[in-house]
Amino acid sequence: MRLSLMLAGFLCATAAQAQEKPVLTVLTYDSFVSEWGPGPIIEEVFERDCNCDLQFVAAGDGAALMARLLLEGAKTDADVVLGLDTSLTAQAADTGLFAPHGLAAAPDVPVAYDDPLFTPYDWGWFAFVYDTTRLAVPPKDFVELGASDAKIVIQDPRSSTPGLGLMLWVKAAYGDDASAVWQALADNIVTVTPGWSEAYGLFLEGEADMVLSYSTSPAYHVIAESDVTKEAAPFAEGHYLQIEVAGRLAASDQPELADRFMAFIHSPAFQGTIPETNWMYPATTSPAGLPQAFEWLIWPEKSLLMSPQEAQAARGPALAEWRAALAR
C-alpha cells in the first residue's frame, strides 16, 4: 500500500513538472496591458508559439519603469522591459542591466536608429488632442497656447514618458526661452497627472479643452467609436518624436526565451497589433499597411528629437525650469 502511494505521488509530481512552463516576465506600462491594449493579444499569440507563460507586469507609465529598474537593480524579476523611449535609453544603458539584443534595426522608424541594447517597437509624435465641439480653433503653437484661455491636462515628466517628452519638446523648440514658455503655460494647466491614462480620461470627461497625447490618438476615436470630433492640433514649431523600445535584462533567468520574445517584437504578429491597440505607428509596417483612419491624421512638417545623450543631459535643467514655472 505504501509503495503504491509513493508511486502515485511520484507520477503526480512528474506529471506536474511536465506541465510546468517556463515563465517570461515583461515589465511594461499600464495601458499596454489594459484590456484594450496590445498586451492580451500579444500574450495569446506568443504563448501559443513558445509553449511558455508570458506574464506582463505593469508599473505605471513609461518613466515609472525606469524608476522601478533603478530601485530593483539586478534583483529585478523582469526578463524584458518594454516601454522605455529614447529620452530614457542613455540612463538605462548606464545601469549596466541590459544585454545586447543582436537584432537588425527596425526599418520603418522615421530616423536612423540602431541601438545594440534597445530595439524599437512603435513610434509617434506627441501632440495636444482637442474636441472640435468644444474648441473650434486650436492654438497653432506653444506661444499661442500660453496666451489663450484653453485649459490643458499634461503628465508629470518624472513618472510619464509623454510628460517627459513634452518637457523636451519645449526645450528642443525654444532652448533658453523654454522657461518663459512654461511660465506662460502655467495658467493653462488644470492638473498634472502621473500617467497618460489619467490625463486622457480627464479630457474625455470634459475637465480640459486639450490633453497631451499623440498625433495618432484621434484614430482610436474614428475606428473604435466612429467619432470624428477628436483632432490633434498641428504646432508650427514642430512635434517631438517618441520612439518606444524594448530591452532584455542581462540577469534574466530565461535568456533564450527573452531573446525569442525580442525577435518576436518585429514579427507581423506583434507589429500588426500596434496601430489599433497601442494607437501608434508600428516599427515594421505590415504588408496590409495602416488602417485608413491613419491617412487622416496630421503629419508634422518638422520632427524634433534629441539624441539619447542630449535628452539625458537636458532632463535635469529642463525639469528645474518646469518645476519653477508651475510652482508660481
Q: Count of DSSP helices?
A: 14
Q: Average pLDDT value? A: 92
How much of the sequence is in beta strands?
A: 15-25%
Residues in helix, %: 40-55%
* Span of the ends, CA to CA: 81 Å
Structural class: alpha/beta
What is the count of β-strands?
12
Spell out the helices and strands N to C.
Answer: HEHHEHEHEEHEHHEHEHEEHHHEEH
What gross morphology would you assign?
globular
As residue ranges, the low-confidence spans are 1-8, 10-18
3D architecture notes:
By secondary structure, this protein is α/β, with parallel strands linked by helices. The protein has 14 helices and twelve strands. It has helices at residues 2-19, 30-33, 39-50, 62-72, 89-94, 142-147, 161-174, 178-185, 196-204, 217-225, 255-264, 268-271, 274-278, 308-327; strands spanning 23-28, 53-58, 80-85, 98-99, 119-131, 152-155, 189-193, 210-214, 230-233, 239-249, 281-282, 303-304. Strands 1, 2, 3, 4, 5, 6, 7, 8, 9, 10, 11 and 12 form a twelve-stranded mixed beta sheet that branches. Mean pLDDT is 92; it is low at 1-8 and 10-18.
